[in-house]
């Protein structure tokens, strides 16, 4: 019985090889389709897992209790709380948040800390270099705690220094704008105003899927 089984298996293998030779191109295309299908599934799963881990890492870094408030469209409501209409005249490109909005958020129940971010349209430059596309933000003293971002060199400005022209920059900004890693005490110019570099942030986390700004 064992001998017959071996003969049957051997015959099946020979028949399979003969069929493959007879339909060579169809067999190659079938194998190619299987390989492409398996590779596509593996790549899709790998990308999905990578994005999931990246998002989880960003949440762990910034904290799951941080809320970003942006200017947007107003939605008038009725006395019962139902939305009556949407004001399309105040899109995110035209509406802005002001001091009153900041004070409202800061005074809201459950808010431990409120930090304003005002993106400034300015070209950072020194006496010899410029930084086109520099991401410039006007803000307050709570940024390191909010972003969970440490200052590697120097120090961040305090509450009593908000009226002083002080700048804290990222590592890549320091290298591109000053040509060195620690330009503490050196000057940069924004809109013709002179600012003194008081601190250098640690490297901001970034990735090809979600590149973040290097403040």
Commentary on this structure:
- The strands form two sheets. Strands 3, 4, 5 and 6 form a four-stranded mixed β-sheet that branches.
- The chain is 38% helix and 13% strand.
- It is elongated and about 90 Å long.
- With 215 residues, it is of the alpha+beta class.
What attributes does this structure have?
5 helices, 215 residues, alpha+beta, single chain, four-stranded mixed sheet, elongated
Short description:
The chain is 38% helix and 13% strand. With 215 residues, the protein is of the alpha+beta class. The termini are far apart.
Name the poorly predicted regions. 88-93
For the largest beta-sheet, the strand count, sense and barrel status come to:
4 strands, mixed
Label the overall shape.
elongated
How much strand content do the residues show?
5-15%
Structural class: alpha+beta
**Oligomer kind:** single chain
Instruction: Count the DSSP helices.
Output: 5
What's the arrangement of secondary structure elements?
Blueprint: H1 2-22, H2 24-62, H3 99-106, E1 118-120, E2 136-138, H4 143-147, E3 151-154, E4 166-169, H5 171-178, E5 187-190, E6 193-201
Parallel strand pairs: 4-6
Antiparallel strand pairs: 1-2, 3-6, 5-6
